[in-house]
Amino acid sequence: MPDLSGIVKAYDIRGVVGEQLDAALVRDLGSAFALLIKPESDAIVIGHDMRDSSPELSAAFADGVTSQGLDVVSIGLASTDQLYFASGSLNLPGAMFTASHNPAKYNGIKLCRSGAAPVGQDSGLAEIRDTVEQGVPAFAGQRGSVTEKDVLADYAAYLRKLVDLSGSRPLKVVVDAGNGMGGYTVPTVFAGLPIEVVPMYFELDGNFPNHEANPLDPKNIVDLQAKVREEGADAGLAFDGDADRCFVVDERGEPVSPSAITALVAIRELEKEPGGTIIHNLITSKGVPEIVAEHGGKPVRTRVGHSFIKAEMAKTGAIFGGEHSAHYYFRDFWRADTGMLAALHVLAALGEQTGPLSELTAEYSRYAASGEINSTVDDQVARMMAVKDTFSARDGVEIDELDGLTVQLPGGGWFNLRPSNTEPLLRLNVEAADAEAVRALTEDVLAIVRG
Questions:
Q1: Measuring CA to CA, how many Å separate 289 from each of 278, 286, 390?
Q2: Which of the four pLDDT bands, split at 50, 70 and 90, describes residue 44?
């Protein structure tokens, strides 16, 4: 029996192609997903990114789905949020083939139920894993069919309907697609808007020849920062490989934290629905719940990860949610994450006033932060326990374990240390009053983690 524990993650399936993932296994995964959702739907929508392995793997998955008697709607090349749009607008379960920001040798599958409802470890992935490991039962009935549907134009029109940029002043925006799916979606989404797009790395290439499609790593936005300054642009946008996350830099080429973007978009959403609930994960700046409350909203804290946030949004009726990793979730987008919609909100806010982006976002950036710092460790649990033991012995320290360790210090500084769901890493995020306090606390924690 195959052991899928290494590739079935908390909220997706991901692995090295040829070693952990191949067409035969993916066909079985398609069959297992079809069995899971058969009681709910008679068809599944499938999309894929630009990785070399994606067309073959998505076709194998479709073969598995149709072998169980369900139909497939193939939307072909797509960003992940475009797949969510298809799932929502067509009211079909979906499968997106992508490994997001991971290197070229990886691929994976993000699954959702009808209306883009998440499928995570506790909501279907474990069941799919068990079905494949035990052997997928054959189906004796009639095979399903595959039809193709292009939803790109409808996706773009839907986003533009949600954010009105018709009154915006003209803006010049540099967009770094990182050779990922942003190069496919941005030209259609931005068409006809008062925005001059300066494209960078729009050529679809799953080998990522210019830089990794992971804007969370500062080295991968260096080119964008330089180009924004060179062009005298109003802003810069960087998308990850499957273009569901968007990072923003201001007119100086300086990064705008995803927490500041979360606060900015939250206020815009609260203007439409006063008193609404806003979700923020536990790694976003503590400035986010402060600002939400000051504008009459109800902030709700949750753990990291799209399946958890979407579930909390459904439970609370939240209108918007944001993560430190630049995932942004909208009730009006079936509670799914779409960096493109967040980007349109930022540009609309910028275009409504005459000042620069740095001035606009300054009021949402109240504290200094470290950004995510990764440490490769042999034993995640042991290192985290060492940190917990050290800090719990100090006076006035508060610790919670909603997601990893969140440690609140008496002076107002705090940090979160959590294990990666996909790699042998511990991820550290630190926030404090100023850069010096962040540096000191970061060194304190890393001395234990790496000691």
A1: 8, 6, 28
A2: very high
> What is the per-residue pLDDT for 305?
80
Distance of CA 58 to the CA centre of its chain: 21
Considering 74, 100, 285, 325, which one is annotated as catalytic?
Answer: 100
Give the residues across from 112 on adjacent strands.
94, 118
Listed residue (217, 225, 186) closest to 203, CA to CA: 186
120: helix, strand or coil = coil
Q: What domains are defined for the chain? A: 13-150 (3.40.120.10), 151-365 (3.40.120.10), 368-449 (3.30.310.50)
342 vs 451, residue with greater confidence: 342
User: How far is Cα 337 from Cα 335, in angstroms, rounded to an integer?
Assistant: 7
DSSP category for residue 114: G
Asked about 31 being catalytic, the answer comes back as: no
Tens digits of residue pLDDT in 342-368:
999 999 999 999 999 999 999 999 999
**Phi/psi of residue 439, each to 5°?**
-60, -45
The one-letter amino acid code at 22 reads D
Bridge partners, residue 347, by sequence: none
CB atoms within 10 A of CB 398: 12
Q: Strand 195-200 to strand 171-176: parallel, antiparallel, or no bridges (unpaired)?
A: parallel
How many residues make up the chain in this entry? 451
Please give the Cα distance from 142 to 125 (Å, whole number).
Answer: 26
3-state secondary structure of 194: coil
Amino acid at 284: T
Quick one: tokens of 197?
């797009």
pLDDT digits (tens, 9 = 90+) for 379-415: 999 999 999 999 999 999 999 999 999 999 998 999 9
pLDDT interval class at 88 (50, 70, 90): very high
- Separation CA 171–CA 153 (nearest Å): 22
Query: Which residue, among 316, 268, 313, 317, has the nearest Cα to 295 in the 3D structure?
Result: 268
pLDDT, mean over the chain: 96
Contacts for 389 with CB less than 8 Å, ≥ 6 apart: none
Listed range (233-242, 271-280, 416-425, 427-436) with the worst mean pLDDT: 416-425
Residues with Cβ < 8 Å from 393, sequence gap 6 or more? Answer: none
Residues 251, 296: Cα–Cα separation, whole Å: 30
Integer Cα distance of 245 and 214 in angstroms: 9
Structure tokens given for 436? 């010096």
Single-letter amino acid, residue 314: A
The DSSP bridge pattern shows strands 246-249 and 235-239 to be antiparallel
Q: Which residues of 26-54 are buried (b: 16+ CB within 10 A; e: fewer)?
A: bbbbbbbbbbbbeeebebbbbbbbbbebb
User: Rounded CA gap, 406 and 400, in Å?
Assistant: 5
